[in-house]
Amino acid sequence: MPPAPVGAPRAALPGLAFPGAGGQNPGTMSPGPRWKATLFTPLHLVVSLLLFAECAALLGLAAWPAAELWSWAERTLPLQGSPRRLALCVVAAAGYFVAGLTLLVVLAAARWALFAVGTPVGRFPYFSLGAWRWASYNALTLILRFSFVNWIRVTPFLPLYHRLMGMKVGRRVQFNTAVVADQNLIEVGDDSVVGGDVTLVCHSAEAGHLVTAPVRIGKRVTIGIMAVVLPGCQIGDDATIAAGAVLAKGTRVGPGEVWGGVPARRVGQRNRTEAGGALPA
After folding, report:
1. What is the CATH number of the domain that holds 191?
2. Domain interval for residue 224
3. What predicted TM-score, i.e. pTM, was given to this entire model?
4. How does pLDDT run across 76-115, given as a tens digit for each residue?
5. Residue 230 · residue 205 · CB < 8 Å
6. Is residue 252 part of a domain?
7. Looking at 111-227, which runs of residues are DSSP E strands?
8. CA dist., res. 254 & res. 251, Å (int)
9. H or E stretch covering 158
10. Total number of domains in the chain
11. Are strands 193-194 and 199-200 parallel, antiparallel or unpaired?
């Protein structure tokens, strides 16, 4: 198949369709049985409270080493007065980082202990086991996102966490974003950069259903600041996604291509020199 001309959208993945139900707006819920409409909000409330309890337990477990550090410092510091208070403040700040790094391990262990092993692939009604598996798994990453993740962006700790959560991450990959979900469905190749505040997810909500599909990012890919990568996208080696671009679901980006815009379209091609001679002939 010849390459698409510059400016033309590339076809979505074969067999990967995300239609609304009966032409309905994908962002609205389809009218289901009356009992679902009646119970939706109460069940949503109950599930939210259960997730709050889970978050409290996991955050408390992660904070335990920090509390032990504080207790040790309070018992052993020989200082008095203002120097002692200053030293305890430093210990408290250090305890935050101890708790945050401990949280990486706690969440990875909770993934298995709570049977929240990963996002399933497919199309699931909101009232379904598949949707519950998605919610319980991604709730773990939300705990990290809202408590600690900004301190470990562009550090080796964030790729490590994503690996522990099931993502296939190559060597020397850099993540400068907190908005990553469904890690078990994501693959990122060697030397790729996921830029600041990029949205990288493998799910969408459509007509009362959760729709999920894997995302693959090749080697030496650059995804610019605040770009959006949606379910089913495949990005070839040495490609560049411009800042603020939105890749529609199921988009295929070829090796070395440059995409930009909303929705994103092919706007150029990197040459072999720019890509370090790595592009195919």
Report:
1. 2.160.10.10
2. 153-272
3. 0.83
4. 999 899 999 999 999 999 999 999 999 999 999 999 999 8
5. no
6. yes
7. 122-125, 168-169, 174-175, 186-188, 193-194, 199-200, 203-206, 209-212, 215-217, 222-223
8. 10
9. helix 157-164
10. 1
11. unpaired
